[in-house]
Amino acid sequence: MAHSIKSLIESWDGIGVVMRFDQETGTWIFIALHSDQLGMPSGGTRMKVYPSPSAGLRDAMRLARGMTQKWAAVGLNYGGGKAVLSVPRVLTSKQREGLLRRYGRLIESLKGSFATGPDLGTSAQDMSIVAQETAFVHGVDRDTGVSIDPGPYTAKGVFEGIKATMRHVFGSESVAGRVVHIQGVGGVGDPLARLLKQAGAQIILSDLDSKRAERLSEELGGSDTFEPHTAYEAACDVYAPCAVGGTLNSETIRELKCRIVVGSANNQLEGPEHGRELHERGILYAPDYIVNAGGAIALGLMTQGVRDAATIDSRIAHIGVSLAEILKVAKEKGESPDEAATRVVRTRLNPNGHSA
Ligand code: PHE
Questions:
Q1: Containing structural domain, residue 79
Q2: Distance 44 CA to ligand 1 centre (A)
Q3: Amino acid 229: pLDDT
Q4: pLDDT tens track for 203-247
Q5: Which of 130, 161, 191 represents a domain boundary (last residue)?
Q6: Exposure b/e, 283-302, CB count within 10 A at least 16 = b
Q7: Which of ligand 1's atoms lies nearest the C-alpha of 120?
């Protein structure tokens, strides 16, 4: 559906959007600030070639709202924000560095209204460049300038989420012999595949870059790989979307041959009604912002000065406990897990029950 920048801004319920056109590279920069109710709006920076600048803005807005939910769900004091660098094409490394530096200076000029970190299309190394221009980057060691990669932390949280769904559906958290389809084997999908393989799961991989899926499959001793256009038909116990959002819509939900959906992608449901549709089809959906919070937990805690790996790990492991609780409440009330999670977040954001 095509949206204009005007109509997107008119319907935005967030704080506002900072927009800038980077003339040197032809990139639209959108920083969507959704909420500062719990703290400084914080979220990753996505770099991608979108069909139009407004598609990039729409993504930034949806992702920023997701960050508000994610921070509220994990109980860390940050607000929802997200940035999109809508590039016209893949940039050369010199163009990329220039863009990241100018983007860093833009963030610095906001003086703490937004802080960022890596997301789809940007890396920890990219954030080290941004951090040379601004103090508002999460997960950067100020002494060394080294930036951490949140991907493995997110993967760990998703793994905990998968175990919790196993317990809920099959009565045991073991993934041994279970078939998991990982869609997208990038920063999170790759470490998730390794964790699952180690725990004895059977893996199916798909990626828009099918070579990448084949390479990982070979390395892991030969898992099945699927071409992206047939991936939804892969029969599995768990479908784990770990790349772009919006993969769960009326069409794909009809095609899915799985029992459970739990993955790291942000905004997996195209619309809220699709949480219901999954529920009605008898597919258990683990709300994305509950299970994919591992990276945010690690980055947020590091900004607060926590360096101790055991503390970070135990906070991430808690994702399994939170998800189990949501699944239990949803079952008791006959709601979809998405509806139950939305209520938890609404209560955190609005503890006195006043409408926001
Ligand atoms: N982009 C990742 C996420 O959505 C990691 C991240 C979290 C980056 C928080 C910045 C801030 O969870």
A1: 2-130
A2: 4
A3: 66
A4: 999 999 989 999 999 999 877 777 666 677 788 999 999 988 888
A5: 130
A6: bbbbbbbbbbbbbbbbbbbb
A7: 1
